[in-house]
Amino acid sequence: MTLLGYVLLFGTSVIITLGACALFTNAVEWLGKRLNLSEGAVGSVLAAIGTTLPETSIPIVAIFFGATRQEAEVGLGAILGAPFMLSTLVVPLLAGLLLVYAQLGKRGRSFRLNYKDVTVDLSCFALAYTVAMACTFVPSRPLRILVAVGLLGLYGYYVKIKFSDDDAGGEPSDLSPLVFAKNSARPSYALIGLQAVAGLGGLALGAHLFVMAADSTAQLLAISPLILALLIAPLATELPEMSNSFLWLYQKKDRLAVGNVTGAMVFQGTVPVSVGLVGTEWTLAPSALLTMVLAVLAAGSLLLQAVWSGQWRPWLLTIGAILYIGYACYLYGY
User: Fold this and answer.
1) DSSP alpha helices (H): ranges in the chain?
2) SS3 label, residue 239
3) 136 contacts 284 by C-beta, under 8 angstroms
4) Were both Cys, which of 51, 184, 218, 276 would link to 240 (CB 3.0–4.6 Å)?
5) How many domains does the chain divide into?
6) CA atoms of 6 and 283, how far apart (whole Å)
7) Cα separation of 38 and 59, whole Å?
8) Cα(123)–Cα(188) distance, integer angstroms
9) How do residues 104-160 score in pLDDT, each as one tens digit?
């Protein structure tokens, strides 16, 4: 296939992803309404788990069913790439996109968030990821298993906090009818679930086509396999989260947009990491360990802004992308 063919494949993947994103976000909002959940719970738990579960199967299959050490390393790369991508690139992209929307007159220039939600999300992620990072220096399997159990328990506690949020209920003023039941004022759980599954299927297909195009283009342009594994592949796997959040941000549903990203960070920093702690020796190359350090630094800067000033300044959030760009330059010369 020529370069033009790969560009068309990229375009197809984006179109499929955007359509599937509209289906999934619409369904998950209706599920939150039917369950009388807050927007924080809908974005940080329902949407985050829905979009991260498909990609979580990658490290599970690679680690527990792979036949070689290389496959286990692929699993570790999948585990570490997602939190790094979300914290250093996706959040700054959200901030940059908000400024673009504001410049076009589509919305205001500030995030409209419940910063208590943001603080809880980032604190849980930073704690979990820091503990997991410390385990790389303690070669004790019983300790790693104990930490894995603790991380799963932390995520369970996090979900409990989100679901007990008393800022719940109520239909967003601009909640559109369920696509699969446009004439129903109270669609059934079956139709909501069917639409959510259809949306997830489309998101998975779009991400798969994106991976195919990225992999083939990288080979055509002779891009380093290391750069492909740690930078390009995670970008593809985080495409569902990014698409959902970009759409919600455009619709001025900031709690859903940001919660989808920070909630995914908490999930990725606990559940897949627990798989890695139990299923591997958890010995990380310097380049892989650096992604953990940068992810914690990025999350820490976001947490500091939320606690110190009580708000996020979009222009300041975009600075976080410097960590991603710097790491890309480091890999290029690695």
Assistant:
1) 3-34, 39-41, 48-64, 69-85, 91-103, 115-134, 141-163, 189-220, 225-227, 233-237, 239-250, 254-279, 286-309, 314-317, 321-332
2) helix
3) yes
4) 51
5) 1
6) 36
7) 31
8) 36
9) 988 888 998 889 999 999 999 999 999 999 999 988 899 999 999 999 999 999 999
| Residues 6+ away with beta carbon under 8 Å from 154 | 124, 127, 128, 270
pTM recorded for the entire structure: 0.83
Whose tokens are 């702690």? That residue is 277
Q: Determine the Cα–Cα distance for residues 65 and 289; give it in Å rounded to an integer.
A: 24
Are the CB atoms for 53 and 171 separated by under 8 Å?
no
Range of the domain at 314: 3-332
Question: For residues 197 and 51, what is the distance between their CA atoms, to the nearest angstrom?
Answer: 11
Give me the amino acid identity at 82: A
Say how far apart CA 142 and CA 140 lie, in whole Å: 6
Kindly report the CATH number assigned to the domain that includes residue 130.
Answer: 1.20.1420.30
130's CB contacts (< 8 A; 6+ apart) are 296
Alpha carbons 319 and 273: distance in angstroms, whole number = 27
**Amino acid (1-letter code) at residue 169:** G
Q: Are 87 and 291 in contact (CB under 8 A)?
A: no
Amino acid identity of residue 153, one-letter, is G
